[in-house]
Amino acid sequence: MCRRDRQVDAVRKKVGEPLPWTRPPTFATLTRIILEQQVSLASAKSTFDRLKTQCGGLVNAKRILRLTDEDLRGCGLSRQKARYVNLLAEDVRLRKFSISALARMNNEAVRESITARMGLGNWTADIFLLMALRREDILPIGDLALVKGIQELDPAVGSSVEEIVERAEIWRPYRSAATKMIWTLYLFNRKR
């Protein structure tokens, strides 16, 4: 990828190897990704940490379903995110959704299975595919840090989906690695 894209190669030389950005393929990971929707990673981590404490150290469907809406709100979940997490836990309990089965599915089947859940869209599916299932060619187009990072990498690129996808085409079939490099650049540029 670095041989094909000199700008990515320059970033690698500037910031080093990309951060690993991996998580286990679990209910807790999917819950944390829900909490990361449209908020900073630091804010989502703080909320997740409070939720984990409330769940006795282990976030799973069974423990989530024991919590009241007030418990979830007390951890910092909005009404909407509390609803999404509860519905996800209920789908797991009723065996309408199996997180372990996702590893055996192709990318589109994973995306369809995740996005069939209330409040879980393509961004959530992409982040789970990239971080938890470690699929090699994922481009989470709806990720603001990725869009801003690509524009910082290549100022000629606009913010339209088409321009982002076109700029990322050279990274196939390793768009996940490129995404991690762009995220690393994004954090580096903000001294984080």
Automatic annotation (TrEMBL):
Reactions this protein catalyses: Hydrolysis of alkylated DNA, releasing 3-methyladenine, 3-methylguanine, 7-methylguanine and 7-methyladenine
Location of the HhH-GPD domain: 35-187
Q: Which domain of life is it from?
A: Bacteria
A GO CC term attached to the entry: protein-DNA complex
EC class of the enzyme, as a word: hydrolase
Q: Which GO terms describe its biological process?
A: base-excision repair, AP site formation; DNA alkylation repair
Q: What is this protein called?
A: DNA-3-methyladenine glycosylase II
